[in-house]
Structures are given as C-alpha cells and as structure tokens.
Amino acid sequence: MTSPIISAPLGGAEFATELDELVAVMARLRGPGGCPWDAEQSHESLVKYLVEETYELIDAIESGSREELLEELGDVLYQVLFHADLASNTPGEEFDINDVAAQMTAKMVGRHPHVFSDASADTSDDVMAVWDDLKRVEKPGRTSTLDGVPQAMPALALADKILGKAEKIGIVDIGGPAPFPVETEAELGSVLLAIVASARTQGLDAERALRNTLRGLQAEIRESEVGE
C-alpha cells in the first residue's frame, strides 16, 4: 500500500528519466506542504507495507499479467525510494537513493569477478562458490554459515535455505532417494497440501512444526561448525 498521489505540476521541472521524476515526487510528498501521512512515516512503520507489496509482486510474477507485474514492481520500487528519502532526512543515516545504487553497483561488480575481472566461473555452481567466498571476505564477523539467514522467512522458504546450508557442510544429503517420489511441482503441491490438511485434522500447526524442526537442524549445524 502507498499513500494516494494526486497529480500536480513539479514546478515545470524537466527530468532526465522517469526515475528521476519519481524521486522528485517522493521528495515533494514528504517535503514542506506535502502529504501529512508520508511525512509521518518511519522505516519501522513502513515495514508492513514493504512485506505486503513484496507478496503482491510475487502474486503478479506467478499468475499476473504484464500490467500487474509492471504495477507491482513500481510499488516495490516506491518502497525503496521511500526508505532512501527517509534516510536522506534522518540524522545519522544521511544517504539517498544514489548512495543505495552506488553501493549495490560496487557490490555486484565485486561479487562477479568472472564478469568484471579475470576470475573464472563457467557454471552456476562455480558462480555460487565464488559468491560464497567473497561474502566470507566481506563479512568476517560471521562465524556460522547460518549468520545472515532471516528467521522471519516463511517456514518452507526457510527450510529450503537451511537445507542448502546443511548440504554444503555435509550435515544432510538430499541427493539420495526421495521419501516422496514426486516429479513435478503440481505433484509436490498436492503432497504438501495433504500434509497440511492432515495436520489440521489432528489439530497441529504445520508452520510451527516445521519451524521447530528447523531450529533443531540449525542447532546441529552450529554444533558441527564448532567441532570443525
């Protein structure tokens, strides 16, 4: 959700790109004489809108039209611009969208030495190995492969993330025979739905159950890392 925007001239100003104009609209809305709602927001108050807009974008990607995808991408972009404008006017933060872009450019160039330098990475697995190595160099304070994994992710997404971490350090092997021999996402969806339905019938919380199991797996991963 974003606050409603009422079309108004921006002093006849001309902009190099539509993105520059949107940045100016954001500044106008949050500046003197702008929108009271926009002016009152904080990073914290906007979190729920960022989550909502992100899920709406996912819906558009999975089942929407071109127009819906275009709109929802714009809504997520607007959230990024909103946070950047807040930061540019917050003592102690004082960065804007150009600083955000500059940092991301440097990060992407640095994380892709096989494109922008003389490193070699011929496969997707090679790329991920380079990516992980560079992350370890960039974030030396992280002591576990789990550091930086957002625990607020939906349980299924979190499970996929943690299983990937566990597989890399040899805690689990997902290359063996599958306990549920499914070949398509449609079949997998039916199995997952049946599991959730069974949980409901027995008064169990499937989301909480998976999270509890994941806490145990994460504890096992951390214990394994300490023993290395």
From TrEMBL:
Residues 41-116 form the NTP pyrophosphohydrolase MazG-like domain. SUPFAM superfamilies: all-alpha NTP pyrophosphatases. GO terms for biological process: dATP catabolic process; dGTP catabolic process; dTTP catabolic process; dUTP catabolic process; response to stress; TTP catabolic process; UTP catabolic process. The keyword Hydrolase applies. Pfam families: MazG. One of its GO terms (molecular function) is ITP diphosphatase activity. Its EC number is 3.6.1.66. Keywords: Hydrolase. PANTHER family: NUCLEOSIDE TRIPHOSPHATE PYROPHOSPHOHYDROLASE. This is XTP/dITP diphosphohydrolase. It comes from Alpinimonas psychrophila.
